[in-house]
Amino acid sequence: MINKRGQVTIFIIIAIVIVVAVVGYFALRGNLFTGGLPANMQPIEETLKSCLENYVMAGADVLGSQGGYIYLPDFEPGSSYMPFSSQLEFMGSAIPYWYYVSGNNIQKEQVPSKSDMENQLEQFVEEKVRNCVFDSYHEQGFEIVLGEPKASAIIGGSDIQLVLNMNMEITKGDTLKGTSDVGKVKKHSVEVNSKLGKLYDSAKKIYAYEQKNLFLEEYAVDTLRLYAPVDGVEISCSPKTWIAEEVFDELQEGIEANTMALKTEGKSDDYFVVDVDVGEDVRFLNSRDWTYNVEVDNDGAVLISNPVGNQPGLGILGFCYVPYHYVYNLGYPVLAQVSDGDELFQFPMAVVVRGNKPREALKASAVDLGIPELCKYKNTLIDVDVRDSWGDNVDAQISFECSGTKCNIGETENGNLKAEFPQCVNGYVLARAEGYQDAKYLYPEITSGSVNILMNKVYDVDVDLKLDGQNFGKTAMVSFVSDRGSSSIVYPEQKTVKLAEGDYEISVYIYDEGNIELGSLVTEQCTDIPRSGIGGILGFTKKKCFDVEIPEQIISNLLVGGGKQNYYLLESELETSNVVEIDSTSLEKPKTIDDLQTNYIVFDSKGLEVYFR
């Protein structure tokens, strides 16, 4: 009996184990297999992971192509003073500048941290995961319910790890009859091969090197001096002229070519090698089609430098020379691209040159770019009204100038602007508008008041130049100079001049090819220098002379005609006329330097016949 009872006990225990095992199987089968799902539901989890991997890669591509951003920061437009906006348009996409200058002349940075990039990638995946497609499983009778997603991403040097906490419940069968299969998974992890983090680190190195050393600005200054007239002296007895538009075009072409020649690998003595240590391929891009800010301190569309040595009384020099000095402001974008294989990270930076010199290095975010002290304190309310000669409102850019300092104020709306101005006695309110001549108004007070500014409309007028009554087609320089500005052209390359109502001095210089040879010349020049010893202390001086050697020169452009004429131009003439005919008289073609000097003396007494038709 004891043995039989023991056998029964064993059978009961075995039965209990079998029942528990069966119940446990059906109760826990949703968590027994890989991913916590039964075998027939595992492909659904794999499909979700594959979808997550695709979205992680897509997000990484966007981060790399948009300077570390998926969701762009707020757009900030530029202005006529500083045309940069906060984003660079490239290949149909907007890329936030990592460094730029705002429309009100404030330096700003938009460099995302790696944590910012991870947060944006997490948000991107959370928004996109519900777009994952499970249609083929729905057709097989599976029901899939997704809960609220919460992603966590880590961007490494060679991979991106993403964990998505999201309840996914899968059922198949009839739940009411108890014949359905149910599976649940909460945590979904993927790892994607990506060099985004490594590329970002290299991009940060390049950006830090630029902010510390301003190497892009240094290359910009070199390019400016190579492709544009900046400082110099040329041996010539004729004025030197450059057409500003052609100078700007050539400068932009040079900037584009030289920027694209920059590299981070090569011999240390290679001019175009940038000394920053990164292991990836680096390119620097610029395009003439991007936003440019090119200005030169000059009145009119032609840069003109007049000779010294051919004026009355300077014949003792024995030669002529043309000194020139032009001051430029320059701004343009550069897009830096760091790549490894098919992966890319790119970000734009603004390059800024002011007064022929690089900007100052940025020490902090959102700092002032040299705003003058006067412009910081605007506490005088002035009502500005801008109209044209017919009384119509003009929308113009308003600035304020006093004691050599210029402050940007704002833009009129329907011809009117009420704004705070700096306090300064005898300052000028300046107005600038497209299609109108710049205007200014003297404001002598430091109290609130109003200003009415009249702007003259600018008209395009064709120039028809004659010499002794005959059509002239050789080289000439034609200038219209008034107290409100000037406009010059090099004829016949340019035949259209922009004019507004005003009192002008019209001058025409007509040149012909020639060949006046001047041999080398040695002249003695003397100057007083302090005596040595006690005599120098007492202020006594002695004469010190030295020889100056003037090299041989050939004068090829000779003044052979022209003259000057004062003319008050009415707007009614400009409205009804589109051609100005200028007739000048000829001078005898010079054969010697003395003849050339004589022509310049006679030139001042020559008049012009001017007709508008």
Structure description:
The protein has 613 residues and is of the alpha+beta class. The protein folds into four domains: 32 residues; 172 residues, no CATH class; 83 residues, Immunoglobulin-like, CATH 2.60.40.10; 154 residues, no CATH class. It is 23% helix and 41% strand. It is built from eleven helices and 36 strands. The strands form ten sheets. Strands 26, 27, 28, 29, 30, 31, 34, 35 and 36 form a nine-stranded mixed β-sheet that branches. Strands 11, 12, 15, 16 and 17 form a five-stranded antiparallel β-sheet that branches. Strands 5, 6, 7 and 8 form a four-stranded antiparallel β-sheet that branches. Helix 2 crosses helix 3. About 3% of the residues have low confidence.
Q: Could you list some keywords that capture this structure?
A:
4 domains; Immunoglobulin-like; alpha+beta; nine-stranded mixed sheet; elongated; 36 strands; 11 helices; five-stranded antiparallel sheet; 613 residues; single chain; 23% helix
Give the overall average pLDDT. Answer: 84
Strand content: 35-45%
Helix share, percent: 10-25%
Q: Write down how many β-strands occur, each being a DSSP E stretch of 2 or more residues.
A: 36
- How many separate domains? 4
Largest sheet: 9 strands, mixed
Backbone shape: elongated
Structural class: alpha+beta
List low-confidence stretches: 28-35, 312-317, 364-370
With helices defined by DSSP (H or I, 4 residues minimum), what is the helix count?
11
Backbone CA Rg: 39 Å
- N→C terminal distance: 140 Å
